[in-house]
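Friendly challenge for the regulars: who can give me the structure tokens for this chain first? No prize, just bragging rights.
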Amino acid sequence: MKQTLFIIVSVLTLCACGNKPNTGEDRMKQQRDSLQAIIDGKDNELNDIMATMAEIQDGIRRISEAEGRVTIADGSVEGSSDRAVIRDNMEYIREAMEQNRDLIEQLKQKVRAGNHNSEKLQKMIDGLQAQISAQAQRIQELEAKIADKDSTILRQDHEITNLNNDVNKLSAKTQEQASAIAEQEKDLNTAWFVYGTKSELKSEGILKNGEVLKDAKFNKDYFTKIDIRQTKEIKTYSKSAHLLTTHPSDSYTIVKDANGQCELKITNPAKFWSVSKYLVMQVK
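First reply, four minutes later:
Bragging rights claimed.
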């Protein structure tokens, strides 16, 4: 303000010392005009400074609001959508803080250029600078917290991935074991039977010198494969049939159907097949 008064006095002095003859009224008018021009210029400078300050304060407010949104979202980060919200808000904060830093530098330049040495004005600028610095510190701490949480999430994702891999391996192993057990169970419950005349059984190597299945040199394709849990009746399509292989006598019966043809009925499958999984019947 002292400098402003000095400028006003200087202008008035120059007007008073001018060589051009003026009437008293003209001189007064010139003085008023010069003084008004100076005042208007200072007012415009101050208005510009105050507008910049208001813009900085609005930026500080918007950053604080964005901080709040990040804090709320950060409190319950569970999905990728929440993390996306945090990233968007942090990007907005960084841009707003950069804009505020530029504005504070512009404000300082305007104050220096206008030679405004008001103590009150300087305190306002210092206050804005302090708020910006405090926000920068909070944002730095917030970024560190988010980075730590991201690291935790990444580690948890890695652990979950490993756990899923272990589960998949265990599931595959379990399935493999189940398949092996099922195959073993299938083998345990698999048997073969054949019926034929004496000459047919001889020709296939099943009956040799009156002995059945004397060695492994017989036609296995001549046999029919069955599941002993399901097959409990075997038709012979012959009126005469008897077993050549050994099976407990109390585990089966041979009956005749309506056409007088023999049919083997297995009454106790586990006992019947306990001696041999091959059944050979000779028919006529």
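The beta strands are 190-196, 207-208, 211-212, 224-227, 233-235, 241-243, 252-256, 262-266, 278-283. Residues 2-168 form a domain with the Methane Monooxygenase Hydroxylase; Chain G, domain 1 fold (CATH 1.20.58). Your move, everyone else.
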